[in-house]
Design goal:
Layout lengths: L1 H11 L3 H16 L3 H24 L3 H5 L6 H34 L5 H58 L4 H11 L1 H29 L3
Helix pairs in contact: 1-5, 2-3, 2-5, 3-5, 3-6, 5-6, 5-8, 6-8
Length: 217
């Protein structure tokens, strides 16, 4: 797995210009006072880079070559999730340092709740993106994967719309739900979101294992 991680990080060197632009955009947005948005953007880019690395592996029958090496399909799947989490960790760490520096210069320290939102929100967002996109990319490849992702997005949108309409029919009070969440306390909310992210990644990993087991090269 270490070799796969080294390979993927070396592939990032071919995208130096893109990474520099992303970093510059995030830094500019943070300086302008939108730390949370910058962190969400960086987390989304981390997820996309992880998924795109699969596309690079598929080029020129690269997958077939990879599995002539002492690499198992399980290791390959785990490495993709690990690579995405490492990129996310780099984004969150760099964003935290920059945000702390900006807060110190502006003498406007952030509250603990603001820090939690800035870190946990992007974590869950990136986990959700990887959970959906990695199995789809492994199953359908780059070309068909885009269509499959669009279908998944439309399905999620339709289900969400249906859930909202059902809630209206059943007269479910959103304000009451939000109040219940707030009463649970910040620690409980943060813990719940972390568990949600872990559950999504775990289920996605299991699906990816099944996909890779059946895949032929």
């Amino acid at each position: 797995m270490k070799g796969l991680l080294i390979k993927d990080f070396k592939l990032l060197k071919n995208q130096k210009s893109f990474l520099a632009i992303v970093a510059a955009v995030c830094a500019f947005v943070m300086i302008k006072g939108s730390e949370s948005y910058a962190m969400f953007y960086g987390a989304a880019m981390a997820a996309m880079l992880s998924v795109n690395s699969i596309g690079y592996d598929e080029e020129n029958n690269g997958m077939g070559f990879l599995f002539t090496l002492p690499v198992s399909r399980r290791d390959y799947v785990l490495e993709k999730y690990g690579f995405g989490l490492l990129l996310l960790g780099i984004v969150l760490a760099a964003g935290s340092v920059l945000s702390a520096g900006i807060s110190a210069v502006q003498e406007q320290p952030m509250e603990a709740v603001e820090w939690a939102v800035m870190l946990i929100g992007p974590l869950v967002t990136s986990a959700a993106m990887q959970s959906f996109m990695i199995p789809v990319q492994l199953k359908f490849g780059t070309a068909k994967g885009r269509t499959a992702l669009l279908v998944v997005f439309l399905l999620v949108t339709g289900i969400s719309y249906g859930a909202v309409k059902m809630a209206e029919i059943l007269h479910i009070d959103y304000a009451e739900i939000m109040q219940t969440i707030e009463q649970a306390g910040d620690a409980a909310v943060v813990t719940g979101l972390c568990l949600l992210a872990a559950a999504m990644m775990g289920i996605s990993c299991a699906v990816s294992f099944a996909v890779m087991k059946k895949k032929q090269f």
